[in-house]
Each structure stands twice: as structure tokens, then as C-alpha cells.
Amino acid sequence: MLGSIKAMLTCYAKHGKLDEARKVFDEMEEERDVVCWNVMIDGYTQHGLPNVALLLFRKMLREEKRKNSKVRPNEVTVLAVLSSCGQLGALESGRWVHSYIKNNGIQVNVQVATALIDMYCKCGGLEDEKKVFDGITGKDVVAWNSIIMGYAIHGFYEEAFWLFDEMRGMGILMVD
After folding, report:
1. Position 83 pLDDT exceeds 90
2. The CA-based dihedral angle spanning residues 128, 167, 105, 44, taken in that order and rounded to the nearest 10 degrees
3. Is 162 inside a domain boundary?
4. Is there a contact between 144 and 107 (Cβ–Cβ < 8 Å)?
């Protein structure tokens, strides 16, 4: 039964029927796990309601503190939350999430690092963006594109071209 409720929640959220998804989510209070929270937070993020996503993330953190809670943010959670921070230009919230990642054992793999770069780029935190980029092991084309875009968007064209040349020199090719 719980599996079909989660499937319904996911279907509603992915198709932008967030009121329906939220009703299902609110009714399953005791059964909610991190997957349910992630579905809702990502649903709000993907459908243009980043403020609501951040509010729900804060609620999730309060839930995490409850005794015997099954809820603990993970990599999927922070990917959606960082996207919301970027959409809002909420640099301080994004820095707080970055700190949360570091302090709570969430692995900073290429996907999380790229989400951090994207958020810092959109929020104007170019120094932080570069620090994250420099710390990535095994940079992929997406990470390179994110840092190059960040510099270009903020008018640092020479740095963007230099990074592009560095990427090409390392043999990382653009994907069509």
C-alpha cells in the first residue's frame, strides 16, 4: 500500500500537480521517508516554487531532529535545495546548505559539486564557485561548463576562455 502511495505522490509532483501531491504528502505523516521529502522538495523546485521548496526543507530539518526520525537529508535533497537557492539568488542560504553538506557527511561528488558551482554562479559567489571547482576530483564536462558559464555570465570573459582552453587541453570534449 505504501509503495502505491509513494508512486502517486511522485506522479503528481513530477507532473506539476503540487496541490494534489502535497495533500498526499501531508496525509502520510508517519510513513514519510527521505524519498517522499525529496519528491516534494524537488517538485516545488522543478515547477517554479523554490521558496516553498526551501520552507519544506526547513520543515524536513525540524523533522530530522525528532527522536527516531527516519528522515535525514541526502545527496538528492541537497541537489534540489541548491537549485532552489540558485533560482532565488539566495547566496547566504546556499552557503548555509554548503556548510550543512560539509558538517553532515553528505558526499561532495561531481553532481553535488556541480550543483554548488551552479548555485554560486547564479548567486554571484564566484570565489566560492572557484573553490568548489578546484576541489573536484574527476571533473566532467558539466562541471567545466558550469564554471565557464559562471565566469562568462558575470563578465569575466578572459577567465572563461582560459578555462575553456584548459578544459580542451585536458582532453575533455564538448558533447553535442
Report:
1. yes
2. 70
3. no
4. no
Q: Which residues of 47-68 are buried (b: 16+ CB within 10 A; e: fewer)?
A: bebbebbbebbeebeeeeeeee
Give the confidence band of 175 by pLDDT, cuts at 50, 70, 90.
low
Any long-range contacts for 129-134 (C-beta under 8 Å, 24+ apart)? 132/98, 132/108
Measured between alpha carbons, how far is 92 from 50 in angstroms, rounded to an integer? 15
CATH of the domain at 24: 1.25.40.10
Residue 161: inside a domain: no
Looking at the 3D structure of the chain, how many domains does it have? 1
- How does residue 172 score in pLDDT terms, banded at 50, 70 and 90? confident
Range of the domain at 62: 2-107
Per-residue model confidence (pLDDT) at position 123: 94
Separation of alpha carbons 51 and 35, rounded Å:
20
Q: Vertex 33, ends 32 and 36: CA angle to 5°?
A: 75
Contact 101, 80 (CB under 8 A): no
**Cα 157 from Cα 165, distance rounded (Å):** 12
Which grid coordinates are listed for 169?
Answer: 587541453
> Does residue 56 belong to any structural domain of this protein?
yes
